[in-house]
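question for whoever is on the cluster today: can someone run the full assembly for these? two chains, 847 residues total. i dont have access anymore since they changed the login thing
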Amino acid sequence: MSGGVVLAEVWWEQLLHGILSWEFLQFVVAFVSIFGFVLTSAVILILAERKVMAWMQDRYGPLHTGPWGLLQTVADVGKLLLKEDIHAGKIDKAVFILAPSVFLAPVIASFAVLPFSPYISLPGGPLATGIVYLIAMSSLDVVGVVMAGWGSNNKYALIGGLRSAAQMISYELPLVLSLVSIVMLTSILLDNGLGTIAIKDIMNLQMAQSWPGKGNPVWDFIFEGFTPWAWFILVQPLLLLIYYTCGLAETNRSPFDLPEAESELVAGYLTEYSGMRWALFYLGEYGNMTIVSAITAMLFLGGWSGPGVAFLTAPGMAIGWQVLGNLLALFYFILKIYLLCGVFIWVRTTLPRLRADQLMQFAWLILIPTTLVNIVLTGALYLVLNALGASNLVFLIVLGVVNWLMLFGFFWVVSRATTASTRRAVAPAIRARQRLAALTTTPVAPQLPEPERAGVTGAAGGGR
Amino acid sequence: MATNQGVNRPPLEGVAPGELRSEEMILNMGPQHPSTHGVLRLVLTLEGETVVDCTPVIGYLHRGIEKILENRTVMAGIRYMDNADYLSPMLNETAYVGAVEQLMGIEPPRRAQYIRLITNELQRIASHLVAIGTYLLDLGAFTPILWTFRDREGILSLFEALGGSRFNVNYMRVGGVLHDFPKGWLQQCEAWCNQFEKNLQELETLITGNEIFEARTQGVGYVDPQQAIAYGLTGPMLRASGVNWDLRVNRPYMAYREVKVNPQVRQEGDCYARYRVRMQEMAESLRLVRVAMDQLPGGPISTRTPIALRPPRGETYFAIESSKGELGIYFISNGSEYPWRAKIRGPSFVNLQILPELLRGHKMSDVVAILGSLDIVLGEVDR
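^ ran it for u. tokens below:
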């Protein structure tokens, strides 16, 4: 309730006022539309995943429900809703029942601050601490997973739940650290010198104010608010990679899908779940994918920016053009999200799964040091260049070059690490070979006398 | 799962009373588990995620094939051999008819021997394709199994054209084979070979250089050469440990006396080496199929043997290099139409014995990595 409403004397009148207010209506609409978006997006993504994976694997995927199997996931959702909710014996009932909701709730809550277009955004859209809020919500997921693992009273589920607790907490750190440098950039780019963690402001910073052919209506239409050379992906490509990798781990997607590794843990923390409770976990996973992709799109790829958006939604345009501009923005934003989700799917079809200890090593020994070094480097570069009197543009270019070099350095370090561990791994084989060579009489490869090998006539088996 | 207060057990050494301590957990993996390759049951003792001990429990797929063979005539028994190692029926049949032929002193015609070689090598490719596909599936990669099954499908179609059945082919006969190649079969096989050569390259690109795959398999499940010999390992398991032993080379049988095989050996002895040996063997088998098709002699495909076959009194052991190792048949005949005893020496069964030894000290995720690299078929383990 906003401050303007006169508070009534009786509590139920207050309540009534609240329920009948515009804010409440807005809240209801927001909630329903978020939930609708998460559901629809998950259904579309699951279908897309099945189809894209099928194309990559030389098969058709779903074909029979609806044209080209388009209604397959809809039918699946129907089935899951109607399915019996099975509780295994001796489960911790309250924890077991609550876990899916605890997992899904933060996912839905995160959508509250996503701006979908210049005007289409939910009540939380203008939140000044957008990034912090998103990170906080994404770290709450782990509670639901651990609850599911514990409540199921199943050893596979317990191992899965504990694995995911370790994994999600470890990957939270490089994920946050990789966003810190973006926030540092904003403090340099903004005039107030403070920087911002509001999502909309960060997106606006990626829209340059000048572009080739400014003044020409055609170029203005295309480039106003759409300046890919100002996107942060060019300045911080390594962080995009790290953020995205951590996003894979946060959402338990391949190659970090250890908590639900079907070949080791049957289904991990999902083992005892069925029906709609199971589907809620899936909904949460795909919602998480959407969130990670959306953050990547907003912080690194300019968010909704695309040809024509800012031109059409500029103040002074007719209302029809404004609506069109907003729809275009929505289209670009969702397109970017789905393209990034496509990378999730692509990775899933390509890579095998890591082992738990390797997963931890990768986070603590490679990702966290890299992000820390990057933060220090960003700050140091700015201080040095600022002292030399260079402009912000020079700083950005230098930082971009350094970061691209670091990206290749990162690949080099990772491959070196793999080679080193490989060398360690094959060491026993080398030692064994040396031992064998030292022995004079080995039972290895006794060679038969030639006549028997030459295929003289005899029984089929070559004689006894 | 938590502290074991109230449980009547002696305190662990070095742990003060009231201190937090962990307990071993017994995890029953299988027989219904996605990646125990059938119905193997592993009773794992875990400390955290580390495997302390492992007890394999087998017998869930026991169908009494050896006993069935005693109650069928020699000719009728061939069909039951298909079901022992159901991923390489052609090889099983060859071992069985080879044992009978050795006992009776029959030498099949050269063309029949070459046909056997071609089908055996195709079967070896098919078996290795399944081994590699399921292995990568165990490691969490979803794509390779679909690619390998696509290629395997071509082999099964070839077998269908040959014997009328895709899986349980029932194609070998004592003294030869059932049919000659049907018209156009060789062209079809040649086309498949050309396609497979490309697909194998593609598969290699997808898997071999992958750093996650290397990190998961290199140094995992290491088998010492001496240990491998001591456990009686055969096939790719043995050759991956650096022991150059291949029955097709060291005890050549049938057409292998004329078509020379290059045994594929690697020195590392780990899961990665086993995978590489299988990949190399597929390329080698492909070469052998082509060589055999080039040299394919004419003539009859079978000696004239009666349907009611009565092998002479006596016993024999005949072994071939199956896709998984030495597949031997110990055949005793008392002179009747029925074998008195037909013992199958299944390579899967022997190779499985080393599993507990390999698993100790590895992580829980490595259990499937090691088990998959053994390439066991429970049909052959339990028989």
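summary bc i know u wont read the tokens: Chain B touches chain A through 67 residues (CB under 8 Å). Chain B has 15 helices and eight strands.
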